[in-house]
Amino acid sequence: MIRLLITDDEQIERDGMQLILTKNFPELIIEQARNGNMAAQMAKEFKPDLILMDIKMPGMNGLEAVEQIAADDPGIKFIMVTAYDTFDFMRQAIKFGVKDYLLKPSKAADIVMTIGKVLKEIEEEKRTLESSRQEMQSTRSLVETDAVTQLLFHHVHDVRVDQLIEILDIQSADEMFTMLVLLPDGEDHFYPLVKEKVRQTGNGWVGALTGNQLPVILFRKPGQSFRGQASTLAREILSIAKSGEQENWFVGIGSVYESLDQIRQSYKEALMAAMDTAIPSKFRFYSDVPVTGDLSEEPFADQQEKELSDQVRHGEWQQVRTRLMNLIQHYENKGTDLLQSQQRMLEVLWIGSRVMREMGIETITPLYSYQTYQYRQLRSETDALLDRMKQTYASHNKRTEADTIHQIKQYIIDHSNEDMSLDTLATKVGLSPIYISKMFKEKLGINYIDLLTECRIEKAKKLLGNPEKSIKEITYEVGYHDPNYFSKVFKKVCRVSPKEYRRGILGRAN
Question: Which residues carry this modification: 4-aspartylphosphate (predicted)?
């Protein structure tokens, strides 16, 4: 809705103007001010998009009011309503950015035409601003997901994590921690709702949904306790579930650390806190888990996690089994508490299942069916869970078509004029965003955005051959929202601007 403020010292003039505007522009929100001082005050409270300003008023005149209001809010537009049609008036009005002026008295048709022209300009600016905001929000969401992925899972991407954090421009606190939200299996539609809850706090980053696991990195709020902040957000997230349907929801909360370099430790702790989901509150702090231990001394270090991830990715299941059985043997030899060993093995199995989901393989989150009381039982149960993962992996490979890359490329080509994020593309083709990104990089040597840009520019080249189409029209037709941004991308790809390219091909045609 567009807000308009009528400023005139004569009541009859204000009411007459409002009557004309209400009749011709019923969607307008209109307020009145009887002098310049009142207009300056209302501009702060009412926040109009357009002000109709009489020039001759007692006290602060119209031009003085425009100067003061424009200094506080340069985005407000003005139309002067005056009986003075002089060059000096126009020179001053233009100096303050006045869009147009109406002479007293004016015909209703002239009023509608002049104001309507400025209203259209305001509407177009609002549409462009909203489109830019949505594009920025989409870009920020992808950067946020990428930052969490790199920090928690040691994935290597084209942009380093420090650069991603700079893009996000979040005021990082001195302390931070991780939450792991377990959603009901197959209920992906809860993901944006959880993300919105975190976004409302203004101090968290949400990672990618892998199966039913959603990692969240949170920054400490000044003046609020860690447990208070975490408990409040956990309850807010759990409130998304309908009454009586929280059984399959759970939130594990890791400990607080002082550096992003340590945040992965908090994630491991959140995993441990989420292992047993039977408690009534449906969220647990790692510090409240009965079995404790120093996870930093675990033999399953980062290098071993990378090796395990590669083995799962390549389907080397015998090597995976050997690695897990050796790890159980290590715990037994060390005399580790059996429940603690079961917790640590569950963490390792979750790493494997996460890798499978990143590959686009739908798999059930591994969970032990009971608490083991002998290491022999732990081996048997771990072997059974591993065998189930292996079978899921094999079944997926049989169903996967050899032309997956071709299908994705064809979809991008056919829909390149539409708004397309990696998440949107992943939903359309039924694969994980991370998997698609890695597949493009490994198989084609490019990012999906490179192919999308190439398709849009090729379409633009063809359209530029039609002299009846403006560059602005072509911008929207190929999928961009800002002609200036389109021109920059076009010049980067083609080494010439759209105008220069058009002159070249039309010149050859003649």
Answer: 54
- The SS3 assignment for 7 reads strand
Contact 420, 452 (CB under 8 A): yes
With respect to residue 408, please indicate whether it lies within any of the assigned structural domains: yes
Asked whether residue 364 falls in the same domain as residue 417, the answer is no
**What is the domain count for the chain?**
4
Among residues 309, 331, 328, 246, the alpha carbon closest in space to that of 280 is found at 246
- 83 band by pLDDT with thresholds 50, 70 and 90: confident
Domain of 485, CATH number, reads: 1.10.10.60
Q: Which residues pair with 218 in a beta bridge?
A: 177, 204
Is the pLDDT at 157 greater than 50, yes or no? no
Average pLDDT over residues 288-292: 66
Domain membership flag for residue 53: yes
Looking at 241, 268, 289, which one is the last position of a domain? 289
Burial readout 340-372 (b: 16 or more C-beta within 10 A, e: otherwise): bbbbbbbbbbbbbbbbbbbbbbebebbebeeeb
Q: Is residue 491 part of a domain?
A: yes
Q: Alpha-carbon distance 345 to 364, whole Å?
A: 16
Whole-angstrom distance, CA of residue 221 vs CA of residue 203: 8
Helices (H), 170-316: 191-201, 226-238, 263-273, 302-313
Mean pLDDT for the stretch of residues 81-99: 69
Give CA–CA dist 387/108, Å, rounded: 80
Percentage of the chain lying above the pLDDT 70 cut: 85
Token pair in block for residue 337: 């508490």
